[in-house]
Amino acid sequence: MAVTKARIRKLALAMEGASEVVHVDRPAFRTARKIFATLPPDEAAVNLMFDPPTRDFFCEQAPGVIEPLPGGRGRMGICRCDLTQADEALAHSALKAAHALAAPKVKIKKRAQKKPS
Predict the structure, then answer these.
(1) How many domains are contained in the chain?
(2) What's the CA gap between 83 and 1, in Å, rounded?
(3) What is the pLDDT along the chain (117 residues), one digit of tens a residue?
(4) Does residue 117 fall inside a structural domain?
(5) pTM for this structure?
């Protein structure tokens, strides 16, 4: 049932464009655009950088396992996932959602419009 930090690291780094960096003295996983997850040093947890709608979805799906951080960070959408209670499917799904929110925005090229003759 429990997921290890080593497994979270492996899942996070397998995502497209993900890399590991240090953020406030803790391991963090980011895309070219921004951080999507951090590993707190002294607890079996992963912090996930959600937006408020994604926070609400995961907190409703897994109460007590995924919860908003206290204060303003939680209101912004940042959540803590308790790895002692999470199964791998939930942790992977939550990581994928956080990664998708942090992924670089894809620019769509506009088609050149032909001038009327």
Answers:
(1) 1
(2) 9
(3) 689 999 999 999 999 999 999 998 899 999 999 999 999 998 899 999 999 999 999 999 999 999 999 999 999 999 999 999 999 999 999 999 999 999 988 766 666 666 666
(4) no
(5) 0.86
